[in-house]
């Protein structure tokens, strides 16, 4: 590192970490020393897990190696964070210690399988490993009761369970076994997409048309795999032959141990992403901003933090996090819908609905392609 340069340390190379470092590199280049740390050697778009699960993509095909993330002024290290001292802005990893002038925590949300007894004995589709297992399980499923069950809120990509059940309907229909199967979706919200009543109404209409049972405002509290029963948080039991779970999410333990987290997540100023520690920011799923835990929102928050850092170093006015984003939704039959949501402009979150079409699939594909190009040069 060059002497005198501002040291910026970014923990986590997801949507937030990569966009933050890319923006800083574009504007500041070699004027700052940016270190990006992640324990993995590759990135995966969240929606790719459904593609893996239903055999639309191979696991190797959706992995984007971090070795292709090359930006002036940025070094990316594969290390595992072991402790964070937000007061000193000092981070210890399995490879050494890093000290920073500005620290950005973007470590995302971990899955707490132990929070739901029995979940480890069934299937989940929120990890690449879980989706890969299901890719091999689903072809052998020909009849019975399927539950897609959410084990806690908040969770990443709120539409994903709805997408999963609609795609599963298509999958079973294509194989000619849908009539032999019952599909149930259990989530802890009163509607599939709370900010957008119009989108929620459309999804509920799709569920009704496809004879998909919808169980709102309930979460799966435990699984009795021996009896093949899901126990809900009201004590009721739902039998299944195949269970597809969304694990409860939690802040990584290293973040909880650091003193950054309160009530499970890192409190921040929702417009600047600043934590209660001077010079420390949190972006993405780890931060309690009041916006969804989804990639585009992490990206928007990262842009705001980048503008704040640039303003500190070069002057000018930073822009605030707008709390806006779009989400593409798989409706089945190759159709993709979209909801544009805005969490901060009005007294309550709003969402505008774009009906599913084959044309919107091109928008989803461009969403992924543009970020692959921006971050990885692919």
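Q: What amino acid sequence fits the structure above?
A:
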């Amino acid at each position: 590192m060059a002497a005198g340069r501002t040291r910026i340390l970014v923990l986590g190379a997801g949507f937030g970490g990569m966009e933050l470092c890319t923006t800083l590199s574009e504007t500041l280049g070699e004027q700052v020393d940016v270190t990006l740390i992640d324990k993995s050697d590759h990135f995966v778009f969240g929606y790719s897990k459904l593609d893996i699960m239903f055999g639309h993509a191979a696991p190797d095909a959706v992995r984007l190696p971090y070795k292709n993330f090359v930006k002036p002024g940025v070094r990316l290290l594969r290390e595992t964070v072991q402790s964070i001292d937000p007061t000193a802005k000092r981070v210890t990893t399995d490879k050494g210690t890093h000290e920073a002038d500005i620290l950005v925590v973007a470590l995302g949300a971990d899955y707490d399988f132990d929070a739901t007894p029995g979940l480890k004995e069934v299937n989940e589709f929120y990890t690449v490993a879980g989706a890969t297992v299901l890719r091999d399980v689903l072809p052998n499923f020909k009849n019975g009761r399927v539950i897609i069950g959410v084990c806690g809120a908040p969770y990443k990509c709120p539409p994903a369970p709805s997408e999963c059940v609609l795609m599963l309907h298509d999958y079973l229909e294509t194989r000619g076994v849908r009539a032999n199967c019952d599909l149930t979706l259990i989530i802890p919200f009163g509607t599939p997409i709370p900010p957008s009543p119009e989108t929620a109404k459309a999804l509920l209409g799709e569920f009704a048309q496809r004879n998909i049972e919808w169980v709102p405002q309930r979460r799966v509290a435990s699984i009795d795999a021996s009896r093949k029963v899901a126990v809900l948080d009201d004590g009721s039991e739902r039998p299944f032959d195949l269970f597809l779970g969304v694990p409860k999410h939690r802040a990584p333990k290293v973040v909880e141990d650091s003193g950054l987290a309160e009530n499970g997540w890192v409190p921040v100023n929702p417009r600047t992403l600043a934590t209660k520690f001077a010079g420390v920011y949190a972006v993405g799923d780890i931060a309690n901003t009041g916006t969804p835990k989804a990639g585009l929102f992490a990206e928007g928050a990262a842009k705001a933090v980048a503008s704040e850092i640039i303003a500190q170093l070069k002057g000018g006015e930073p822009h605030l996090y707008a709390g806006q984003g779009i989400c593409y939704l798989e409706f089945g039959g190759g159709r993709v819908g979209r909801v544009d949501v805005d969490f901060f402009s009005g007294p309550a979150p709003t969402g505008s609905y774009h009906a599913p079409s084959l044309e919107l699939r091109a928008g989803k594909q461009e969403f992924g392609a543009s970020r692959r190009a921006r971050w990885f040069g692919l």
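Q: And what stands out in the fold?
A: The chain has two domains: 6-109+251-314, 111-249+324-376.
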